Amino acid sequence: KQWYQRRVAITAGIAADICISLSEHIDYFVFNRSLEEFEEKEFSYNVQGSTILASYPHFFASLILVLISVVLTTKSKYNNMIGSCANFISFLMVFMIVFVGAFYIDFDNWFKVEGGFFPYGYTSVFRGAIVIMSTYLGFVELPCVSDEALNPAVDVGRAAHSSFFFVLCIYIAVSTVVSLLVPYSHVQTNFAMANIFIEIGADWMKYCVEIGSIAALFSTAMCVLQAASRLAFSMGKDGVILPCFGLLQQKSKIPFNAVMWCGFVGAIVPLFFDSTYLIRLAETGYMLSCILANLGILVLRYSVRPIPPQPELTGNLGCKKCQPSSCVTKKSEERAKWCMGLCSVWVTGCMLSYNYGRQLMPWLGQYGCAYLSLMFLSLMVVQTFFLSLLPQNPKDCVYFTPWVPWLPMTSVYLTAWVIFQESPVFFWEAEALLLAIALLIYACYSFWHTDHRDPDDDEGEKEVLTIAPQNSYQSGAQRNTTAQPPGQPIANTTQTCKPILIRARARSRSS
User: Fold this and answer.
1) Which pLDDT score, from 0 to 100, does residue 306 have?
2) Do 10 and 240 meet the contact criterion of CB atoms below 8 Å apart?
């Protein structure tokens, strides 16, 4: 629950940062940066040396965020239509950038420029990949709108995979063309793409670049704000926050209160906080979300799943292979928890000894700290190996994480290394502040209003066991399921099949 509360705050901050960039592009394209000069001149805070507070309020960005919130309060088909139009325009402009830029490429910018193909070495390339990784973490917003999908188990995974592949192709194409247009030292920080085309003589392309940037930022702001509102809506239904956020508008079926609340919080952020601070906060929060997601995969894979009572099966349905059971036991679950806890300790020890070993333990020296971090890394590998020997839950989903536990633990290690390597102090300060706010909200309100439901204590809960042959996986016209009371054998069953157990619960407790 505290994680979801932090996610709402971080996502609202991301929406505010995106709107700041959107306002800057509109100001540059339409008003020739006159709005920025006016805000800086008339409303400057005179804050010097602060990395958190902004030097002046971004009123235009707040106004844009409010307008996007109003758009999201309309019907879903209108939201989808507006978002699809913005995405189409941005994709069209990306295609034009790649197509037009292909006529101006010069391979000397890769090989004959000072520094060669890797002017800052392989380490800088890896750090650049880390920065790009933070942009890919936006795909974790897809499960936030899974309630609106027809088949979330298939649609969400398919959307994530296809979007990831499409964005990867766009990144490769655009970065290849941009790096071949001008030398790397000529790329400017602000409005880089437009300035590149101005430098090569294609001044008219700057309008296409800015139109595509505005459309892409607008659709991204809509997506992020929609994800934040859906998180607030889910927490409102569960009682984590006020129940008014869990209400739907009768006509549009949109969580109006959640959308406007997230828009209001996001509109306040650009008035006081610096955009660079918001970007680093978002990167740190998303990396922590990546760690928690990988740990959640391990917990779900090695936890005991409740299995309904089974009837006495006869015939081909009574074979051991067809019995729906989980190999995970309470004992193996406890062992898995110990292994995951020890792996977390070894990862933390490896990061601390690698980054702060010489400050915390100067008597070890440089090589001693390196050997100590290598020892922790070896212990993590050994512990992961013992974890892989424990039984796991069966793969009963369409999209299932492969190579468990090696892939999740590798992701945890690399993400932790990025966090400690890039901004360790900032990470702990930001997360401690957000965690303190989340715990305060949980202690004052959520703990007393959340439905602490125990499945074993549900009043009036009943279980109905339904057994269907294997051909029931077909369409509805061909599906043939029959209810079978527990304890009665199944007669006249000749096909070899795997029974489907469907649990239907009837609760007498009001929601």
Assistant:
1) 60
2) no
